[in-house]
Amino acid sequence: MSPHPLQRLQSPSRSFSLLLHVLGTLSFGYNFYFLTIWDTPFNDAYGWHFQFLTIIGLLGALLAFVLGILADLTLSRSLFAAKNMVSVLATPLEVVVALLYWGLSFIDPKLVFDGEFTMPLHVDLGFHMLPAVFLTLDLVLLSPPWTIPVYGVMTLSTALAFMYWYWIELCFTKNGWYPYPLFELLTTPQRILLFSFSALLSTASSVMLRKVYGLLNGYEASREQRLKQREKVQ
């Protein structure tokens, strides 16, 4: 099966593509297993650990890589396309998670995590760094270029950001506390600004990833591909 003209390596395939997707799935799966044995109040709380944007993003990463494995084993273009559709949302989200988590942790770790609970460094990296690394490698090496326009990404990012806000407020009404200590410190207008900033950061992340893809795989070819895609739509 011939890859997309701008795609650097063969995918779906039973070689490097399968190896990367298996390694990523094992990493993400271990993180979910860790949550089941980690003794915290979130295990019994409404919303479980899915109160955290980190875990929602991790679920998206796991789904994308499981689809990637299935596509590699079956050489199915439909499963490959499904993997890429999930990655369009999961990859920028995981980059944002990494940037926000490590940036806020540098300022004050208590803004993002209750100091009462600790996790090993390799688990911390597994939650807040490796998903972004695996998904970015998948994007750059094993995927065709994204054709979704920037305004589409911004619309999706804004909708998802405020859906997440609604979700954590619902969890707050059930549990009486927020998953991130930072939310306890903010007023409602400040939370609006925070989620708006997160949506903009997700959009910027998508633009940055697209530029990285173009830098490694060809700006001109990527531009021509987008023009051809628009012509087909018209």
From TrEMBL:
Signal peptide: none annotated. It is a multi-pass membrane protein. It comes from the Eukaryota. Keywords: Membrane, Transmembrane, Transmembrane helix. Its main location: membrane. It is found in: Endomembrane system. The keyword Ribonucleoprotein does not apply. Pfam families: Far-17a_AIG1. One of its GO terms (cellular component) is endomembrane system. The chain crosses the membrane at residues 16-38, 50-73, 85-105, 150-168. This is Membrane protein-like protein. It comes from Hapsidospora chrysogenum (strain ATCC 11550 / CBS 779.69 / DSM 880 / IAM 14645 / JCM 23072 / IMI 49137).
